[in-house]
Amino acid sequence: MTTVLTPPGRRARTARTGTCRRPPLLTGAGTLFVLLLALLGPLAAPHSPTAQLAAPFQHPDGQFLLGTDVLGRDVLSRVLSGGRTIVLTALAGTAAAGAVGTAAGVLAAMVSRRLGDLLLRCVDALAVLPALLVVLVLAAGFPGSDAALVAAIALATAPFSTRVLRAAADTVLSSGYVEAALSRGDTRRAVLRHDVLPNIAGPALMDTALRLVASLHLTATAGFLGLGPGGATPDWGRMVSENVPGATLAATPFLAPALLLVLLSVCVGLLAGRLADTVGRGAA
Asked: CA-to-CA distance for 255 and 263, rounded, in angstroms?
């Protein structure tokens, strides 16, 4: 699919220039499986994920299919309950970063060049901070707060979205039909609504997919470091950290959540890469 920038008739139309291959079935199925497991898993947990039910690091048996963890809690129940927080936090952080990045990028493109460059300098000042440092500061400053973790992820990833979408908006605004629309008397709001936003939707979608991968990594890392929801709340990242010391006694308590995190990150990353290729071919 190739997006064609239209004259001031306003709607972007699409022309078929070839058949876009769908993402590999295996990758899509893996992503869907882990997402459904994370979001719906708590409904299928056989035991309370926070209750101490047996001896620590008990091997899998008929009662505990994946054994027990460092505190004697059912690993299967914690695995089924520990993904929802990571997925929802990563999605919320990605959505917030996408909204901030799109707004800042389009604003930087539509104001004067000097003001736009000044806005980007401010964004660059935030981008030079290590993403993990931003997460550590906010999550440690507001312990146990999901909102603080979402804000940290958004602040860490939004600067890169701002630059990408500013460049995309600049390309649209420098086109001849936008200049014709402005000279005809169309308001900048009309140009933004009918010309700019529809034609940067593809790059925005691609950038959002890429930021989701980074958000998943940051969320899992925060859990591994003990940040985010506190107490006995199950979290795949925290489960890996808690159970690594007992790896020689039982492997499933840390291996099961670690494999799910790897599977989710790899599958989402592959889908984001395929989406980027598709959008790139469409813009060519």
From this structure: 12
